[in-house]
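In response to reviewer comment 3 from the previous cycle, which asked for concrete evidence that the modeling workflow produces usable outputs, we include below a single protein chain processed end to end. The sequence was submitted unchanged, and the resulting C-alpha cells are shown without manual editing.
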Amino acid sequence: MSRRLTLRQVLMNLLAALMMATFVLLSCGAANAIPSSTPDTANIENEDFYRNNPYRGTVLNVYNWGEYISDGGEGSLDVNRKFEELTGIKVNYTNFDSNEDMYAKLKSGGANYDLVVPSDYMIERLIDEGLLEKLDYSNIPNFRYIDEKYKGLYYDPKDEYTVSYNVGYVALIYNKQLVEEEPDSWSILWDEKYAGQVLMFNNPRDAFAIAQSLLGQDYNDTDPAQWAAAYDKLLEQKPVVRSYVMDEVYNIMESGAAAMAPYYVGDYFTMAENNDDLAVTFPKEGANIFVDAMCIPTTTQNKGAAELYINFMEEPEVALANAEYIAYATPNTEVLKMDEYSYKGDETLYPDESLFENYQYFHNLPSETQSLMSNYWSDLKVDGSSNRSVYVGLIAFVGAVAAYGVFHLVRRKHREKYYD
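The workflow returned the following C-alpha cells.
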C-alpha cells in the first residue's frame, strides 16, 4: 500500500537524504586519504627499498592478461594498491585478451606501456623484432627467487629481457558423470560416442597442438605436410565438436552442458569450485607448457619504475598472493616453501616432472607457417572444405624461392653457415 506524503514530510526526508549523502562523501574522502590496511597487508622485508625510490609521483603503465593479478577481491591482497602505497607511483593497469592483441598494440606504437606480460613464443618474437628493452637485474634483486628451471629458457637464453611470472600447461578437463572412465589420451576428443559433448580451443595454436600431439608431431615444425596432416585430424574431429571456446568454457563445463574440454590447468580449479563433478587429467601424448614473463617494451617512459614493479611482484608474500589468486604454477621458490600456500604440493598444479617428457613449448613460427596455419583454421571454422593443396603449393613455392635466394647469397658472400 502506498501513501501520500505531506509537504513537511517531503522536506524532512530531503534534508535527511542530504545529510546522509554528505556523510557518505566525507567517509569516502577519509577512506581515500587513509587507505584501509586490511586488503593490503603483506610482509615486505625491505620496505625502504620501495619507499625511498626516485620515481615517486610518476605513472607506471602496466599491460597484463585479465584476471591475472591479486586485486583485493574476497579479502586477497590488492597488489597494485600496495605497490602504490609503498612507492608513491601511480599504476595505470590495463588488460589484453591475447598475445596477438598485445603485440599489435606494441607494434603500432599507439600506446606507451612500461611493462607487459607476454607468453614465451611472443617474447621470442618481440626480442627478434627489437621491441623489448634489456633489464638491469641489479634493480631486480628478487630475481634470485626464480626457480633455475625457469631461467635461461629458449626465448631468453642469457636472461637479458625477462623475469618469469607464471607457468601453465594444457590438460583435459572432463565431467565424471558424463565420461565413463578417466581418459588417458587426447583421442577421446574424437570419440563419436561423445558427439555434441566435446569442446575445443577456439584459437589455432592450441587447437592444432592437440592434433599434433596425437600425431606425434613437433608443434614448431614448419613442414607444410605436417600441418596438412594436423588439419585433416581437426577436420575429422569437427562433427563431434559442440563448439570452439575460450572463456565460454567456464559456463559450459560448470553447468554440465559438455563432457570434456582441453584447457589450462590453472583454470580447472576455478571450474571445479563450481562443479564437483569435474576432474582433470594429463593425456599421455603430452601438451603445451608455457611461461608468461614480465618484460619492458621499448615504448617505456618509466623503465626504472617498471624494474621496481617487477621486483615487487617477486616479493615472496606478493608472489604468494598472486599464486593463490591466479591458481597457476609459480616459479617463485620461496612461495613453494610456504605452509600457508594452499597449493603447496598439489599434484595437479605441480605434477611429477616425468609428466612433462612429452610437453612442448610453442616457438615463434615463421610468417609463412603462421599464414598456413591461419588459412587452415579459417577453412576449418567456416565450412571444413579443404584447400590444402592450394596452401601447400603456395608455401612450397615460397620456400623454394627463399631457398634459391639463400643459396646465391651464400655463394656471393662466401659464408660457410647461416643461423636462423
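The longest helix spans residues 7-33. We consider this sufficient to address the reviewer's concern, and the full set will be provided in the supplementary archive.
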